[in-house]
UniProtKB/TrEMBL annotation:
It comes from Cardinalis cardinalis. Keywords: Lectin. Residues 4-134 form the Galectin domain. It comes from the Eukaryota. SUPFAM superfamilies: Concanavalin A-like lectins/glucanases. This is Galectin. GO terms for molecular function: lactose binding; laminin binding. GO terms for cellular component: extracellular space. The gene is Leg4. InterPro entries: ConA-like_dom_sf (IPR013320), Galectin-like (IPR044156), Galectin_CRD (IPR001079).
Amino acid sequence: ISQGPVCTNLGLKPGQRLTVKGKIAPNAKSFVMNLGKDATLLGLHFNPRFDAHGDVNTIVCNSKKVEEWGAEHREAVFPFQKGGTAEITFAVNQNDVTVHLPGHQFTFPNRLNLSVFDYFDTQGDFTLQSLSWE
């Protein structure tokens, strides 16, 4: 899996949001965005799958504590297209993260009770073009 840029000092707290823009590969199988404390404590593992691990056009989310993954959460709405662009906003709340997609949003619980999200990375068939936070 190709590794994109890694951010380690974001300092995202409840009430703040991170907006990610980029390009999806024309032959994309899946891509990943991780948000957490560091690479071992991931509050949100966001994984849109075009065709990977038996999933087709499904968004799979999870959390990871060191080597231990939580229960997978699946979203049936899939607003991504191969070769297209993607804009995704992660809004940090007290107890969860709201993921804003084109025409759709959902929340994922802050299972690790992180008070601050310092870490962000992208992997897979996605080229990061811009990151902004407020």
